[in-house]
Specification:
The complex is a heterodimer.
Chain A lengths: L3 H33 L4 H29 L3 H34 L8 H23 L4 H25 L8 H33 L7
Helix pairs in contact in A: 1-2, 1-3, 1-4, 2-3, 3-6, 4-5, 4-6, 5-6
Chain B lengths: L7 H11 L10 E10 L2 E11 L4 E5 L6 H8 L9 E9 L2 E2 L7 H7 E4 L11 H11 L5 H14 L3 H4 L12 H14 L4 E5 L7 H14 L4 E5 L3 H7 L2 E6 L2 E7 H6 L4 H7 L5
Parallel strand pairs in B: 3-8, 3-9, 6-7, 7-8
Antiparallel strand pairs in B: 1-2, 1-4, 4-5, 9-10
Helix pairs in contact in B: 4-5, 4-7, 5-7, 7-8
The chains are: A mainly alpha, B alpha/beta.
C-alpha cells in the first residue's frame, strides 16, 4: 500500500527532475551564447526565475511533508536534501543568467580568446551531468569524483587570474575580454561548488553521513 | 573550493562535539542473554541491552514483538504470569535480579512500573493512593508519609492540581491526572528505575504531552524505560531507542541515530511505516 508520504515525496522528486533539466539547459545555453555571441538573456532570465519558483515549491512541500507526516530515516534525509539540492539547481540558473548578463554588459567580445572559459565550461558541464545522474541513480560515490573535478576548476580559475596579471604588461589584453572571462570563470567556479554540494547531498541521502564543507 | 574552510584542527573539535554519546557509558541495567517464554513459546530471544543511567530508553516494535515482556522481565513481573518463565541475566547496579538470593519484592520496590491504563486503587483517596506502598512496606511515621506524598505528587507534576483535594477519590481525576497519580504512586517508593508500558496510549494529546514533559523531568533523578507504539513519541522523549521484532532486539542506539540513520533495513522499514 502506498504511504501518503510517498505521494508527496514523488511530487518533490518530479519537481527536482524538472529543475535538473532546466538548470542544465540554462548553463549550457549561457555558455553557448558566450561561444557564439548570441543573445539569450530573455530566455535564461525566464528559466532562472522558473527555477527560483520551483525551489520555493520544493521548500514549501518539504515543510508540509515534515509537518504532516513526520518522516524519519531515508525519507527525512531525502526531504531535507531536496531543499539543498533545489537550492543548488536554482543557483545554476542564477549563474547562467549572470553569465549572459555579463556577456551583454561587455558588448562585442567575438574577437576575444575564449579558450580558458570554454575549457572550464566543459568540465563544469561534466560536473552538472554527473551531479544530476548521481541524484537520479542515488550514487553516493560520485561526490568524490565531483570534488576532483572541482579542484581542476579551482586551479583553472586561479591560473587564469594569475597569468593574466603577470603577463598584463608584456601582453596587454582587451579589458572587455579580461573582465568577461574573469566573471564567467567565477560563475562557473560557483556552479562547480554547487555541483559538489549536490553530490554531498546524494551521499547524505544514501549513507546519512554529512560531509564537512571544504 | 576557492574560499578556504575551517582548519582540520577546528573541524576535528566540532566533529568530536557532535559525536553521539557512545553506548559504552556506565550502565544502570545490563540485560544479558535474556530469553523469556509463555509456556513453550519463546517470546524473547537472547536479548542483550545496556540501559544508560538517567536516560530515557524507548522500546519500539510491532505488536507481539516482545516489548512489554522485555520490560516486565526488568522487574521480575513476567514470572508472575502463570506458565511464564525467563532465563538470563538482568544486572542492575552489579546485582543480577534473577539471582536466587534476590528477593523479587525488593526488586519491584527499586524498579517501579506504570501501566498502559491508569489504575489508581479505586476505593482510595488521592493521598492514600500515593501512600499505599509506603504503608504496605511498614512506614508508619505520618509526617514522613505526608512529606513523601507531597514530594511524589510534585514529582509527577500533579501537586498544584490536587493539593486541596487530597482526600477525594483518585478515580475522580481525569485520565491524564490518574496516570500522573500512578506515576506519583510509583515515585513514592523512590525507585531507581521506572518502567512505563505505553503510558499515554489511553490519554488525549494534551494529557500525553504532560506525561512526555514529566518523563523528561524525571530522568534527572531516575532511569526510565518506556514501551511505546507511538514512534514519534519515542523520537520526542527518549535518548536511546531499541527496536524489537519477533522477540529479537534488532537495533539499539541513540534515538537521533535510529530515527535519522538506522543501520538495519528492518528498522528503517518499520520506523518509516512500511510495515507493522
Amino acid at each position: 500500500m502506498t504511504r501518503l508520504l510517498d505521494l508527496g515525496i514523488d511530487h518533490i522528486r518530479d519537481i527536482i527532475m524538472d529543475m535538473t533539466k532546466l538548470s542544465e539547459y540554462s548553463v549550457v545555453i549561457a555558455i553557448g551564447s558566450y561561444q557564439e555571441s548570441t543573445s539569450v538573456k530573455k530566455q535564461i532570465f525566464e528559466w532562472s526565475e522558473k527555477l527560483r519558483v520551483l525551489q520555493d515549491e520544493v521548500a514549501d512541500l518539504a515543510i508540509e511533508l515534515i509537518a504532516r507526516y513526520q518522516p524519519v530515516a531515508t525519507d527525512l534525509r531525502f526531504i531535507r536534501s531536496c531543499m539543498e539540492i533545489s537550492y543548488g539547481f536554482s543557483r545554476f540558473g542564477r549563474y547562467a543568467y549572470d553569465i549572459v548578463e555579463a556577456i551583454e554588459t561587455m558588448g562585442s567580445i567575438s574577437d576575444c580568446d575564449k579558450s580558458a572559459v570554454l575549457e572550464m565550461a566543459k568540465t563544469v558541464r561534466d560536473m552538472i551531468f554527473l551531479s544530476v545522474n548521481a541524484l537520479k541513480s542515488r550514487d553516493k560515490d560520485v561526490a568524490k569524483k565531483l570534488y576532483e573535478l572541482d579542484d581542476t576548476v579551482d586551479a583553472l580559475y586561479r591560473t587564469y587570474i594569475r597569468v593574466t596579471i603577470i603577463t598584463q604588461n608584456e601582453k596587454p589584453r582587451d579589458l572587455r575580454c579580461y573582465i568577461s572571462a574573469s566573471l564567467i570563470l567565477r560563475y562557473l567556479e560557483r556552479i562547480s561548488d554547487h555541483a559538489c554540494y549536490i553530490g554531498d547531498s546524494v551521499n547524505y541521502i544514501v549513507t546519512g553521513n554529512s560531509s564537512p564543507r571544504r | 573550493m576557492i574560499n578556504g574552510g575551517l582548519t582540520d584542527n577546528i573541524l576535528e573539535k566540532i566533529l568530536k562535539i557532535n559525536e553521539y554519546p557512545a553506548l559504552k557509558q556506565p550502565c544502570k541495567a545490563s540485560i544479558k542473554n535474556l530469553n523469556a517464554w509463555f509456556g513453550t513459546k519463546l517470546v524473547l530471544k537472547n536479548v542483550n541491552l545496556d540501559i544508560i543511567p538517567n536516560s530515557v530508553t524507548a522500546i519500539i516494535g510491532p505488536s507481539g514483538c516482545g516489548k512489554t515482556t522485555l520490560i516486565r522481565c526488568l522487574n521480575r513481573m513476567h514470572e508472575m504470569t502463570p506458565g511464564a518463565a525467563a532465563k538470563g541475566q538482568v544486572i542492575v547496579d552489579d546485582v543480577d535480579i534473577y539471582d536466587k538470593r534476590v528477593d523479587p519484592v525488593s526488586i519491584k520496590r527499586r524498579i517501579g512500573m506504570v501501566f498502559q491504563k491508569p489504575n489508581p486503587f479505586p476505593t482510595m483517596s488521592i493521598y492514600d493512593n500515593v501512600s499505599a506502598g509506603l504503608k504496605l512496606n511498614g512506614v508508619k511515621d505520618k509526617r514522613l508519609i505526608s512529606e513523601i506524598v507531597k514530594e511524589s505528587l510534585e514529582g509527577s507534576a500533579l501537586w498544584d492540581e490536587v493539593k486541596d483535594e487530597l482526600d477525594k477519590p483518585g478515580m475522580g481525576l481525569s485520565g491524564g491526572q490518574q496516570q500522573r497519580l500512578c506515576i506519583a504512586r510509583a515515585l513514592a517508593m523512590q525507585p531507581e528505575v521506572l518502567l512505563m508500558d505505553e503510558p499515554t496510549s489511553a490519554l488525549d494529546p494534551i494529557a500525553s504531552s504532560k506525561i512526555e514533559e514529566l518523563v523528561h523531568q524525571l530522568k534527572k533523578d531516575l532511569t526510565i524505560v518506556t514501551v511505546t507504539h507511538n514512534m514519534l513519541q519515542a523520537a520526542r522523549v527518549s535518548d536511546y531507542t531499541a527496536f524489537m521484532y519477533l522477540g529479537e532486539l534488532i537495533e539499539y542506539g541513540p534515538t537521533n541515530q535510529i530515527f535519522k540513520t538506522p543501520q538495519k533495513e528492518l528498522t528503517e522499514r518499520y520506523i518509516s511505516g512500511k510495515f507493522g
